[in-house]
Structure to design on (552 residues):
């Protein structure tokens, strides 16, 4: 069990694409790795692509929720993208709604969401700096 | 027209194998994609229960017929401590471990027929059906 | 032993039996437009041959493997009949009408006729039942297939705008149909990368608890996939039913009409429609 799910860094974001049928330990490893990497790279956003996952059972669902909660505490936004319709229907029937996890249809839309939401925070900070630095300019 | 196989349930990776074999059986029975996903997810839940709380056992996968419809039948057996209060164990949110307590009750909602039998000290057996 | 005698009788009197059998089938009122003499004769001869072999090798136990060719023949015939819309009686008549000519033959033969008659009756009753069963199974399959294709036909998921889908539901919803529609909708969301789906139930007369639950589950599933659903066109009676049933719609967005829902969808997508001054 040396296989691991790769975590890619891209700017302020971490990208994960789950391409294997995850066993429980693999999910737990991912959770641990990701937490560590968020801190190491001071990542602002995490995108998890699950379009290749054929099922999400309560264990994987719980792992995703857990990752989102930990990331939130570490000030990173998490978005889960690409859940298949059959998987979503099954998850709902199972009784899991993954409350508090942001979702998007695909990687592209997920990235756009991260950019909107992460940059929102950064822009506010930048604007405040502008206000302080250049009083003559009208901030826009 | 009936094919049967029995898989071991001894370690975590066995759950993955069971999922894959159940998927294959459901595909062969030509169940719809949503039905396939439901029975595979139910198998995953029950197999994990059997491993964690029952200390392992085995899983029987059968592709068969039910009232003239193609069907998949699963029987997952463990030899663990068993469940003393089945009614309680089948309630949403009830858990004896640290899970969400959706395993048994959730799996039951995913399949067309669900039968559980358990004797304290004798282990637990869960039978599940999904048909076309 | 009796069955071997039966096999011999069938074999030795083939031509006479065939003639008589076909006459009986005609007399039983099989419509000549549906089945010409040629196919009746062919079917009858095939079955007779298969019967002789089955009886002489497999005895009177129709579960015996030697009986398989006979059963396959009957299954095929029943299947064709049910596909072509033959009434079940005509299908059963085919096998059962062999009884009469056979009984006459047995009457004329010597030996233990009663015993032979009994064996014969039992055998043909079984075959008759088997035929009916095959006919019914085939019919059920036809019905199921028709149902499925009807369901698919009745589920148009249409694109209103880039990123906006709509399903106008019309007619009564049972949980089966709702499920099919909803699966189609979710798949279309993925295929068209649509952020918003409008479920319009203007044309739905009533909603029961199961259907309301299915709608809710779909909305939750869409949310898990990253899309948003809007329900439009809820009639006053349905609104009352939903409240009465205690179905919790939670944070589901509802709009009075499809137009209102579409407007909301466009607003969410930051699309603004501007009237053309020149045209005005």
């Amino acid at each position: 069990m040396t296989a691991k799910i790769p975590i890619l860094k891209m700017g302020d974001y971490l990208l994960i694409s789950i391409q294997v049928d995850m066993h429980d330990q693999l999910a737990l490893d991912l959770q641990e790795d990701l937490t560590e990497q968020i801190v190491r790279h001071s990542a602002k956003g995490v995108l998890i692509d699950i379009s290749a996952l054929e099922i999400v059972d309560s264990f994987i669902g719980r792992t995703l929720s857990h990752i989102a909660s930990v990331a939130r505490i570490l000030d990173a936004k998490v978005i889960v993208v690409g859940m298949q319709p059959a998987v979503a229907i099954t998850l709902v029937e199972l009784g899991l709604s993954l409350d508090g996890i942001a979702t998007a249809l695909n990687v592209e839309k997920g990235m756009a969401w991260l950019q909107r939401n992460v940059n929102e925070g950064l822009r506010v900070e930048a604007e405040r700096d502008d206000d302080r630095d250049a009083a003559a300019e009208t901030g826009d | 027209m009936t094919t049967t196989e029995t898989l071991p349930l001894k370690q975590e990776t066995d759950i993955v194998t069971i999922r894959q074999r159940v998927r294959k059986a459901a595909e062969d029975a030509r169940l719809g994609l949503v039905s396939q996903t439901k029975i595979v997810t139910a198998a995953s839940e029950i197999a994990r229960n059997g491993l964690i709380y029952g200390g392992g056992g085995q899983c029987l996968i059968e592709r068969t017929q039910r009232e003239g419809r193609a069907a998949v039948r699963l029987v997952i057996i463990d030899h663990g401590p068993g469940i003393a209060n089945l009614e309680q164990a089948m309630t949403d949110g009830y858990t004896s471990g640290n899970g969400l307590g959706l395993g048994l009750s959730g799996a039951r909602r995913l399949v067309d027929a669900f039968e559980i039998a358990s004797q304290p000290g004798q282990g637990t057996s869960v039978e599940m059906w999904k048909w076309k | 032993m009796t069955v071997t005698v039966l096999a011999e009788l069938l074999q030795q009197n083939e031509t006479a039996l065939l003639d008589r059998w076909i006459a009986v089938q005609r007399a039983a009122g099989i419509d000549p437009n549906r089945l010409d003499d040629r196919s009746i004769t062919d079917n009858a001869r095939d079955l007779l041959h298969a019967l002789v072999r089955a009886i002489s090798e497999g005895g009177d136990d129709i579960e015996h493997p030697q009986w398989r060719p006979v059963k396959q023949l009957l299954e095929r015939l029943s299947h064709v009949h049910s596909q072509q819309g033959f009434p079940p009686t005509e299908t059963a008549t085919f096998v059962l009408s062999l009884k009469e000519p056979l009984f006459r033959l047995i009457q004329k033969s010597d030996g233990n006729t009663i015993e032979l008659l009994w064996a014969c009756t039992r055998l043909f009753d079984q075959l008759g039942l088997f035929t009916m069963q095959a006919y019914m199974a085939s019919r059920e399959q036809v019905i199921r297939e028709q149902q499925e294709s009807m369901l698919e036909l009745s589920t148009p998921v249409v694109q209103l705008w880039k990123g906006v889908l709509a399903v106008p539901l019309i007619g009564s919803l049972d949980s089966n149909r709702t499920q099919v529609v909803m699966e189609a909708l979710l798949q279309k969301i993925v295929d068209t990368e649509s952020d918003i789906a409008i479920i319009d139930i203007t044309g739905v007369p009533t909603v029961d608890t199961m259907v309301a639950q299915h709608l809710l589950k779909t909305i939750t599933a869409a949310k898990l996939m990253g899309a948003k659903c809007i329900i439009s066109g809820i009639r006053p009676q349905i609104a009352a039913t939903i409240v009465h049933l205690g179905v919790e719609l939670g944070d589901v967005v509802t709009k009075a009409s499809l137009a209102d829902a579409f407007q909301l969808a466009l607003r969410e997508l930051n699309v603004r429609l501007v009237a053309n001054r020149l045209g005005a």
